[in-house]
Amino acid sequence: MISDITSLRPNTIFDGGDLDCGSGLILLIRENMLKTPVDGILEMRSREPTVADDLPPWCRMVGHEYLGFLPAEGFVRYFVRRRAALEAETETQALARDKQEAKSFEWRARVRSAGHQHAKVYARNFSFDIGQPASFEEKDSYPSAIEYLLGAIAGSLVTGFASDCARAGLDVDDIEISISARLHNILAHLGVEEGDPSFETIAVKCFVSTFEDEDTVKTIWAGTVNRSPLVATLKKGMDMDIRLSIV
To answer: Which of 16, 100, 111, 146 satisfies CB 3.0 to 4.6 Å to 46 for a cystine?
Structure first.
């Protein structure tokens, strides 16, 4: 690291938002490093605390020079000097390899019966419980698979929207989503009668608290929705009512 970081004049600047090194940030760093001349300086702005620990060893591993960081208002400025590519692999080749590995990534989970109307899901280092197919009670021991799906849809949009806003440098105070759904025939799902057990409607309403430009916020929200794998898949077979309310 250099002694006077404040004197650095970066050749390239980009905002990594709240992404960490395991969720796509390295791909963005590689892409922006290609825009930086050899021996030039890349400034990456981040709101993710773990970057402070993960970025220096990554720089050492790939051959770039980590120069240090400067705290700023709401984010941290990280500086990296681009060095000549390692002999074994150019920056362009490394980026292409990382993209291909990301595209071929396979999600895995293991599920076992845990007793009457109860299953346990294991995914990576996590585990969670799933209860009976459907319940009309106010309280149960475990959520149903349908409730997990609705939570996954809303969760992907909340985290994705927050990350997209952070990368765009928008100041967002709070994001909350309400989501509801109806099946064509819940009795078919329960095996009580014949019919169509698929979703009839899924309604999503996102509430965001911000003083940022409304059109900009709506544009970022539309991008988040379009990039959600769950939304994109479900919209192929049904209509979804997805709305944004800025408060």
So the answer is: 16
pTM for the complete prediction? 0.79
Share of the chain above pLDDT 90, in %: 74
Tell whether 154 and 212 lie within a shared domain.
yes
- 3-state SS track over the chain: CCCCHHHCCCCEEEEEECCCHHHHHHHHHHHHHCCCCCCCEEEEEECCCCHHHHHHHHHHHHCCEEEEEEECCCCEEEEEECCCCCCCCCHHHHHHHHHHHHHCCCCCCEEEECCCCCEEEEECCEEEEECCCCCCCCCCCCCCHHHHHHHHHHHHHHHHHHHHHHHCCCCEEEEEEEEEEEECCHHHHHCCCCCCCCEEEEEEEEEEEECCCHHHHHHHHHHHHHCCHHHHHHCCCCCEEEEEEEC
85 and 125 part of one domain: no
Give residue 2's pLDDT band: very low, low, confident or very high (50, 70, 90): low
> Do 61 and 125 sit in the same domain of this protein?
no
Same domain, 148 and 242: yes
Q: What CATH number has the domain bearing residue 39?
A: 3.30.110.40
Do 22 and 77 reside in the same domain of the chain? yes
According to the model, what pLDDT value does residue 3 have?
A: 63
pLDDT score of 86 more than 80: no
